[in-house]
Amino acid sequence: MAVKADHRGTNRVVFERGVPAQMMGIDGTWRRECTMEDVSETGAKLTIDGSVEGLHLKEFFLVLSSTGLAYRRCELAWVNGDQIGVNFLKAGDKKKKARSTAAGA
Question: CA angle, corner 78, sides to 27 and 99, nearest 5?
Protein backbone atom coordinates (compact mmCIF):
# COMPACT_ATOMS: atom_id res chain seq x y z
CA MET A 1 0.00 0.00 0.00
CA ALA A 2 1.43 3.38 -1.02
CA VAL A 3 0.20 6.94 -0.63
CA LYS A 4 0.77 9.43 -3.43
CA ALA A 5 -0.66 12.79 -4.46
CA ASP A 6 -2.56 12.76 -7.76
CA HIS A 7 -2.84 15.58 -10.30
CA ARG A 8 -5.77 17.07 -8.34
CA GLY A 9 -3.57 17.40 -5.23
CA THR A 10 -5.51 14.83 -3.17
CA ASN A 11 -3.78 11.98 -1.36
CA ARG A 12 -4.55 8.67 -3.00
CA VAL A 13 -3.90 5.25 -1.43
CA VAL A 14 -2.75 2.70 -4.03
CA PHE A 15 -3.29 -0.95 -3.08
CA GLU A 16 -0.63 -3.42 -4.22
CA ARG A 17 -3.14 -6.23 -4.84
CA GLY A 18 -6.43 -4.32 -4.84
CA VAL A 19 -9.30 -4.64 -2.39
CA PRO A 20 -12.25 -6.89 -3.30
CA ALA A 21 -15.58 -5.03 -3.40
CA GLN A 22 -18.94 -5.05 -5.16
CA MET A 23 -20.85 -2.50 -7.17
CA MET A 24 -24.62 -2.47 -6.70
CA GLY A 25 -27.35 -0.52 -8.46
CA ILE A 26 -29.12 2.12 -6.37
CA ASP A 27 -32.36 0.17 -6.80
CA GLY A 28 -30.64 -3.17 -6.00
CA THR A 29 -31.44 -4.73 -9.39
CA TRP A 30 -27.82 -5.50 -10.32
CA ARG A 31 -24.52 -6.34 -8.67
CA ARG A 32 -20.96 -6.80 -10.00
CA GLU A 33 -17.74 -7.94 -8.38
CA CYS A 34 -14.91 -5.42 -8.65
CA THR A 35 -11.48 -4.62 -7.24
CA MET A 36 -10.66 -1.23 -5.75
CA GLU A 37 -7.20 -0.36 -7.13
CA ASP A 38 -6.81 2.98 -5.37
CA VAL A 39 -8.88 5.37 -3.27
CA SER A 40 -8.87 8.97 -2.10
CA GLU A 41 -11.22 11.04 0.01
CA THR A 42 -13.18 12.00 -3.12
CA GLY A 43 -13.14 8.87 -5.31
CA ALA A 44 -11.62 5.58 -6.40
CA LYS A 45 -10.38 3.54 -9.37
CA LEU A 46 -12.12 0.18 -9.83
CA THR A 47 -11.43 -2.83 -12.04
CA ILE A 48 -14.71 -4.53 -12.95
CA ASP A 49 -15.18 -8.29 -13.22
CA GLY A 50 -17.29 -8.96 -16.31
CA SER A 51 -19.16 -6.63 -18.62
CA VAL A 52 -20.66 -3.29 -17.64
CA GLU A 53 -22.99 -3.31 -20.67
CA GLY A 54 -26.56 -2.48 -19.71
CA LEU A 55 -25.71 -1.36 -16.17
CA HIS A 56 -26.90 2.02 -14.96
CA LEU A 57 -23.53 3.45 -13.84
CA LYS A 58 -24.56 7.10 -13.51
CA GLU A 59 -25.07 6.47 -9.79
CA PHE A 60 -24.52 3.27 -7.76
CA PHE A 61 -23.22 1.90 -4.46
CA LEU A 62 -19.69 0.62 -3.90
CA VAL A 63 -20.11 -2.08 -1.23
CA LEU A 64 -16.91 -2.57 0.75
CA SER A 65 -17.95 -5.22 3.29
CA SER A 66 -19.57 -8.64 3.06
CA THR A 67 -22.37 -7.50 5.38
CA GLY A 68 -23.06 -4.36 3.33
CA LEU A 69 -22.52 -2.06 6.30
CA ALA A 70 -19.53 -0.28 4.71
CA TYR A 71 -20.45 1.38 1.43
CA ARG A 72 -20.13 4.62 -0.55
CA ARG A 73 -22.59 6.16 -2.97
CA CYS A 74 -20.78 6.82 -6.27
CA GLU A 75 -21.15 8.44 -9.66
CA LEU A 76 -19.21 7.43 -12.76
CA ALA A 77 -16.31 9.76 -13.64
CA TRP A 78 -14.56 7.90 -16.50
CA VAL A 79 -14.24 4.50 -18.25
CA ASN A 80 -11.10 2.90 -19.69
CA GLY A 81 -11.66 -0.73 -20.72
CA ASP A 82 -12.43 -2.77 -17.61
CA GLN A 83 -11.42 0.09 -15.28
CA ILE A 84 -13.63 2.95 -14.16
CA GLY A 85 -13.12 6.03 -12.04
CA VAL A 86 -15.81 7.00 -9.54
CA ASN A 87 -16.54 10.11 -7.52
CA PHE A 88 -17.96 9.61 -4.04
CA LEU A 89 -21.23 11.42 -3.38
CA LYS A 90 -21.86 12.92 0.04
CA ALA A 91 -25.28 13.04 1.66
CA GLY A 92 -27.19 15.96 0.18
CA ASP A 93 -25.07 16.28 -3.00
CA LYS A 94 -28.05 15.60 -5.27
CA LYS A 95 -30.22 18.15 -3.44
CA LYS A 96 -27.54 20.82 -3.73
CA LYS A 97 -27.11 20.17 -7.47
CA ALA A 98 -30.87 20.27 -8.03
CA ARG A 99 -31.21 23.50 -6.02
CA SER A 100 -28.34 25.25 -7.83
CA THR A 101 -29.77 24.20 -11.21
CA ALA A 102 -33.24 25.46 -10.27
CA ALA A 103 -31.83 28.74 -8.93
CA GLY A 104 -29.91 29.32 -12.17
CA ALA A 105 -32.97 28.75 -14.36
Answer: 60
